[in-house]
Amino acid sequence: MPAFTEHRRPPTPLKGLRILKTLTAVTALSGLTLAGVLTAPAASAATPAWSAATAATAATAATAVADVSPLQKALNDLVKKDNFPAALATVHESDGEARYYTAGVGNLKTRSKVPADGRVRIASNTKMYTATVVLQLVGEGKVELDAPIERYLPNLVRGKAGDGRKITVRQILQHTSGLPDYDDALFADFDRFLRKYWKPREVVDLALRKKALFKPGKGWGYSNTNYVLAGMVVEKVTGRPIGHEITERIIKRVGLRDTYWPKAREKGIRGPHPRGYFATKPTEPWRDVTTFDPSSGWAAGQLIGSPGDLNRFLLALLDGELLKPAQLAEMKRTVAAPDADTVGGSRYGLGLATFRLSCGGFAWTHGGNAPGYTTRNAVTKDGRAAAVAVTALPVTMEGAKNVEKALDTALCA
Amino acid sequence: MYKPSSRRSRLLACGLATMIAVGTLTAPVAASASSATTADFDDGVQKSLDGLIGEEFPGALASVRDADGRVTRYTAGVGDLETREEVPADGRVRIGSNTKTFVATVVLQLAGEGKIELDGPVEKYLPGLVRGEAGDGRKITVRQLLQHTSGLPNYTRYMHQDFFKIQHRYVEARDMIDVALRHKASFKPGKGWEYSNTGYLLLGLVVQKVTGRPIAEEVTRRVIDRAGLRDTYWPGVGDQTVKGPHPRGYTVRKPGGEFVDITTMDPSWGGAAGQLIGTPDDLNTFFLTLLDGKLLKPAQLAEMKKTVKAPGFPEGWRYGLGVVKMKLSCGDTAWGHGGDIDGYETRDAATTDGRAAAVAVTALPGGEAGALKVIKVVDDAVCGAR
């Protein structure tokens, strides 16, 4: 409970936009009782839909309920007990086979099914993509990891929030820069937040009005500001928009057909997707927030993708398909990241974190929170990948924990 | 007027300009594409357009609307020097600084809605942004930005002189504003006139601040869609192409050198000062719709048409709020803007009696003589459309 009220310590770390963190915190305050509402429908779609091939197969495979897998049960519970409108997961076994799971409904109004492996806002998972591009540029000799960000963004970061001459590229990727976040400032007015378009420089300006969390290198503090700056470094060095670089260097290279960078002005989600919902406490009815302007997330959280694509990305990344060995090693060098998840013991590398498994060891992860969607995803050392998405931010601490438990179940069961 | 040493400075200039005619009538009936005819006869416009083709301009296209709403389209030269394809009638081109009129229209709409105060300081909308020896946002008004009387240094003057080095470069408006702010003000606010693209980048941010939406979206929703401009669009982030049928745009590496295809480029440096893509037909429709009062309330249209001297522009030209007032050779008055951006120059003029002409050439002129030749085509076309 204290973790909720402490404004620097979000209930569901690895939070997507930190905006979200604030929100969830607010939410959580009122909400530790599950007693609320049940807006969410029962597990009509609570069947393990699996297929090595397409999501379409999944939809038709939704019959055999008899044999409910532990992961399916976990998703059913996220809907039944934690009241998420929907939960979906995709698991890639180490032999490459993919299984798709869904529970709940994709649209509370029409009660339509959750599309298997439907698209969601993957929010802060975007940071993995941005970090990968920065590290590719390091491998190409275009960015120096331990150079001050000043070299790439002259005169931009100054004042009480931090000094670009004293903060390195590594520190912004690692969240050890001490730069404050901007998310709470966005969230003052939620309705306005949903509609408003932001330029990266504007959100940086918001952050620069605040005080540094700590001196560079002297602590760990998750801050979206770091990744907005990382995106700006990429633009400065490549001369191309960050969305373009992520698309060309990662999405196309790995063949992520369900992942895309929303265009400027684009507020919807393309293709099959469950609707995303929002409430601040369990007793509040769900509000459909599928459509909003994600520009404030930008290089820290703007991407849209499917759970399956999150798996494919992490597998390709850790398989060395995107980075040279030296840069992948840098990415995996971690520092303690206290309270970054509800499991505990998590560590943060460069845009990549660890997730402690109940079955021993840890998996590589990130995760993301955006209004409407929470994603938790990881890949184990033996190449099993799983991504769980629910179609709302948690409104209770239990809900937040249970999403991460579902991920653990997917990887350990 | 063209200083070879600062080639950048003239980009996005409406340049010298546009000139042309008088008129009075109004609304263009949206001469739609279907009612347009292609000139296959040897009339004056075709002749003068043909006369532009040569060492300076590989291709040219024009659209002329007479007072009865009849549209005639013209093309000359070749659209693609490699394939020798024709110039597509009413093909798309980068319309450069004509974008300013679109942005000014949005600003004035917001003024009409009480959301922007024309004589309010820029500071009110962009607190703390404009400071230093380039100028002070507390002392510069929105009107001065629209009018080029702010004294803010023009960032395009300080861009890389070799465009090929930045051709594919994506930049943010704020980065270019930073560039401008590192230089000295040209004069105190209100104490002079100097074409400054910087003012329009700031206006784009003002609109974003007031509406919460990007300038591209506001221009699209409030102007392009409302005026029914089907071939005009704001290129998205990272989009380096010109969509749909279009002549290729060219440049030269040095005066007199061979044409190099420069169509594909990142126009982000133009931003709210010059990023739009459109066609001659659409330019005519836009200016006529604007003059007809369909985009602005009377009070704001009147503000737009209040002009000041524009030193350096052709004789008889004055600048309003994002619009140029031109005295035509036939004595008529016309309104337009014009735009210069690598690969394309456009000149346009519309009269209040519903005549309009827009000409595009597929390279920037090499000097003043070439620029004046393009202007003359527009002038003759509007005067001849009575």
Explain what the structure shows.
The complex is a heterodimer of chains A (413) and B (386). In chain A, 34% of the residues lie in helices and 13% in strands. Chain A is α+β, with helices and mostly antiparallel strands and 413 residues long. In chain A, a hairpin with an 8-residue loop joins β5 and β6. By secondary structure, chain B is of the alpha+beta class. In chain B, β2 and β3 form a beta hairpin. Chain B has a single domain (7-384), classed as Beta-lactamase (3-Layer(aba) Sandwich), CATH 3.40.710.10. The radius of gyration of chain B is 19 Å and the shape is globular. The longest helix of chain B has 17 residues, at 368-384. Chain A binds chain B through residues 155, 192, 195-197, 199-201, 235, 239-241, 243-244, 263-265, and chain B through 166, 168-174, 178, 208, 212-214, 216-217, 236-238, 266.
Known CATH architecture of chain B: 3-Layer(aba) Sandwich
User: Hey, which two chains have the biggest interface?
Assistant: A-B, 17 and 19 residues
Report the major sheet of chain A.
Answer: 8 strands, antiparallel
CATH fold category name of chain B = Beta-lactamase
Q: Strand content of the residues of chain B, in percent?
A: 5-15%
pLDDT averaged over residues of chain B = 90
Instruction: List segments of chain B where confidence is low: pLDDT < 50 over at least 5 consecutive residues.
Output: 1-11, 14-34
Percent of residues in β-strands of chain A: 5-15%
The end-to-end span of chain B amounts to 31 Å
Helix/strand order of chain B: HEHEEEHHHHHHEEHEHHEEEEEEEH
Helix run count of chain B:
12
CA distance, first residue to last residue of chain A = 29 Å
Question: What order do the helices and strands of chain A follow?
Answer: HHEHHEEEHHHHHHHEEHEHHEEEEEEEH
Q: Which structural class best describes the helix and strand composition of chain B?
A: alpha+beta
CATH superfamily of chain B: DD-peptidase/beta-lactamase superfamily
Overall 3D shape of chain B = globular
Tally of helical segments of chain A? 15
Mean pLDDT of chain A: 86
